[in-house]
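Why do we care about 3D structure at all? Because function follows from shape, and shape follows, mostly, from sequence. That is the central idea of this module. The next example makes it concrete: a single protein chain, its amino acid sequence, and then its structure expressed as tokens.
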Amino acid sequence: MPSALSHAAIPLALGLGLGTGLVSRRLLVAGVVASLVPDLDVLAFRLDIAYSDAFGHRGASHSLVFAAALAVIALACAGPLHSSRRNAFCFVLVGAASHGLLDMLTNGGLGVALWWPWSSERLFWPWRVIEVSPLSLRRIASAEGFEVIRSELLWVWLPAVAVGVALAVLRRRLRLPGQGRVRKLRQP
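And the structure:
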């Protein structure tokens, strides 16, 4: 897996690039949290759940169904998130789904159960360019950890910053709302 900090890169770049007119600060935080939540499945190791099990690491919690479930929760919480229901759903969906999609770019582990519950197959992208992050904090501070950080800067943070800047430039050129409070939309 990429490190927890790198999973946050996708929602941070999108949220900051789109601006607070579309992604409120609360929604930005929700998107970042959604990008981190799938790795709570590491608790499965402590519960003696096999890595390859549907509820093991990179299993169900890394699926698109799980991302959609988090997005539905965000949709229901759109008011407190200071967001429209559509924006809350879409932003949290992208934040949560990005977790498994990034993990599929790593060069270690068993792959991601992206299509769970329809398939338990663990998948990787054809390009496995991100060094897999050690699960131990002690090992992140090692030479191996430095390689992970270098890899994540190149393959996660650099593209995320480029996308965020491009969105901000596009937003300004098209004069889209970027700052200020999101207007409440009437909902049926």
